[in-house]
């Protein structure tokens, strides 16, 4: 292939330089020992553009979806990486060049692909009811065969789905086995319609309730508790006229309030209630949330990283916001809502240092919990290194006890970036399990899979799996036990 020419921005440089090749390898070299309790598949979504963009500037977020899988069995590790063969990927491969235009703006596409599904399915590998689905918030997920990584097609629950989108951040109730998944811009570009879908343990779509958001926000994630679905809404807003004029889809508004919508999780869309909060905030991922009975009322706690402005440089540029990432104030915080006093809005309490890609054990989702994990960039560990979606990679892995504030950290030093970890539950319920994450070394441009004791991240990796080739940084990942993997719907 002729050498591809990439735009001059961090999205395409250093560890972010596109790779664009499918490959696989078996029995990778392991330093240390894979703990015997770890058997399963670690699926990862990557963004890796097959062709240079047709717009002058483009973001990392636009890259074609690829799905990666580490398969861990009997202490051995296999790896495979393949494109998600979306309609978009097919159309561009046939043309031998990019045809889809600016991020999230269909009005900038080449006329030959008008109406073609433009999602890249590059954000999260979702596992539910024995199926693997690669998702992005701007369209429907694509089902992928978990064994062959071959793409099956767009996934719409047997055509039952009405929303035009489902997000990359479903929430699961570990007790019922249900999956709750929302979709914003449910009725099309820049619409305020949001859908909340309930999918039962068997994978059947049992309800789809719509509500109106206060504005068309980039509604990336939400929180599920035992009774509530909670939607933090931040003022990164799409505008149809601006999009039609070929402008940026997303502009962040420092002078527009944030909101939280709360809806009974099995309720009607019309039951949503809105609480208004401070102007200009931003957030993408929520760690967890739960309800607590206190003095005759119910408190709803939502734990998430909240920032004073949007973290994506391309969105700040489009918004005329001048701030370097290192100066943006942020923190892991707890927002608490008193269900008997919604007019009071919410209160905020700091929990931990700023960071993102938060995880908990699946058993803790939506109920009172203690332990969370996330990645952060700590300037004391090293200078910012180009890695992943916001420019500076994460160099520290954090374990936090959200009840006591106790922190433990694995600092990776000045030459490494860490991708989002997955939590792997242990067969021993007394044991906290493990975290697995790909760690990238910049000086050697190489990637390794690290396995860390979840309860003791500061001790470092108990096993490192060396990869023969560099990986492009991950977006999100999902752990699937070997039993679930082997009982998949697709064989
Ligand atoms: C995010 C990632 C996306 C996207 C929108 O992490 C938001 C946030 C990889 O794609 O399209
Ligand atoms: Fe995300």
Overview in brief:
The chain is mainly beta. Helix content is 5%, strand content 40%.
Rg of Cα set: 21 Å
Distance between the termini: 33 Å
Number of helices: 4
CATH topology: Methylamine Dehydrogenase, Chain H
Structural class: mainly beta
CATH architecture: 7 Propeller
Number of strands: 33
Shape label? globular
Ligand kinds: 4-hydroxy-3-methoxybenzaldehyde, fe (iii) ion
Q: Helical percent range?
A: under 10%
Low confidence ranges: none
CATH class category:
Mainly Beta
Beta strand %? 35-45%
| Major β-sheet annotation | 6 strands, antiparallel
Counted up, domains total 1
> Which whole number gives the mean pLDDT?
97
Keywords:
Methylamine Dehydrogenase, Chain H; 491 residues; six-stranded antiparallel sheet; 5% helix; five-stranded antiparallel sheet; mainly beta; binds fe (iii) ion; binds 4-hydroxy-3-methoxybenzaldehyde
Structural commentary:
The chain has 491 residues and is mostly beta strands. It has one domain (10-486): 7 Propeller (Methylamine Dehydrogenase, Chain H). The protein is 5% helix and 40% strand. It has four helices and 33 strands. It has helices spanning 87-95, 240-244, 313-319, 482-486, and strands at residues 23-25, 30-32, 40-47, 65-73, 76-83, 124-128, 131-135, 141-144, 151-155, 171-172, 179-184, 193-199, 205-212, 223-224, 228-233, 236-238, 250-252, 257-264, 273-279, 286-294, 297-307, 330-338, 346-352, 356-359, 371-376, 396-401, 407-411, 416-418, 422-424, 434-441, 446-453, 461-466, 474-481. The strands form eight sheets. Strands 2, 28, 29, 30, 31 and 32 form a six-stranded antiparallel beta sheet that branches. A five-stranded antiparallel beta sheet has the order 1-5-4-3-33. It is globular, with a radius of gyration of 21 Å. It starts with 22 loop residues before the first strand and ends in a 5-residue tail after the last helix. The model has no long low-confidence stretch (mean pLDDT 97). Fe (iii) ion is lined by residues 123, 168-169, 220, 284-285, 476.
